[in-house]
Amino acid sequence: MHSGLVAIPADIREFDGYSWHAAPDQYIMAAVKGSNVLPLIVPALADGTDVDMVLDRVDGVLISGSRTNVHPSNYGEPETEHHGPFDPARDLLSIALIRRTIERGIPLLAICRGIQELNVALGGSLATEIQALPGRMDHRKPQTEDRDAAFAIRHSIKVKEGSCLASIVGHGDVNVNSLHRQAISELAPRLAVEAVAEDGTIEAVSVIDAKGFAIGVQWHPEYWVGNDEISDKIFAAFGDAVRARHAHPAAAAAAE
Ligand SMILES: N[C@@H](CCC(=O)NCCCC(=O)O)C(=O)O
Fold first, then answer.
1. How far is the CA of 65 from the centre of ligand 1 (A)?
2. Domain of life, per the record (predicted)?
């Protein structure tokens, strides 16, 4: 039996002749199998959502990756041809959800587009086409139809000693996958860097003085849950935080 309900903001996707509010299966299954929680996909309404109505009912929030990019107007930069594709309804939902999740101390795990939204939600900015920047590696998704190859572990990162992430996976070198062309540029004032790649790309952050679990990672631990110790540890730690909140709702509400 799963214990704890976790909100996952939907993407808007076009297929089968319809618009869908959808979340990728790999996040749903990582939450189910790696965290032992029940995921709840939250629709991305174009006019906005009462996120507190959602947060009153869940014990955690998982922000997924997605091929779309946060619209640069959310961090005060003009749109260029390099910024798309966009999903403005997802931006609207995720940014509002992240802000209130942190304010209320509800456990938060943000992955790939999620860490980028976390940084933007707290006042930071993003760099685009980072592979074209001097000294940076190519972090983009490998060109292959083979999903295991696309999500294969590709480069190492350094997890900082004493960080929240180090308390979960240990500090030092960790090998991760990479499927992104944007990354954190200006770090939001309330975020601490937890891990960096060899080229300086910020790979993990935590929320400073967070009331609860609040971590973002630029890579995709969800894909290898069940097959990779580091991925398992991250989802297990998130699940533990979600269950702790679920088990003591009165204490959680009093702490808000
Ligand atoms: N805006 C981001 C998106 C990164 C991300 O979340 N990627 C997951 C999608 C994987 C896929 O393409 O299948 C960026 O930096 O590119």
1. 6
2. Bacteria
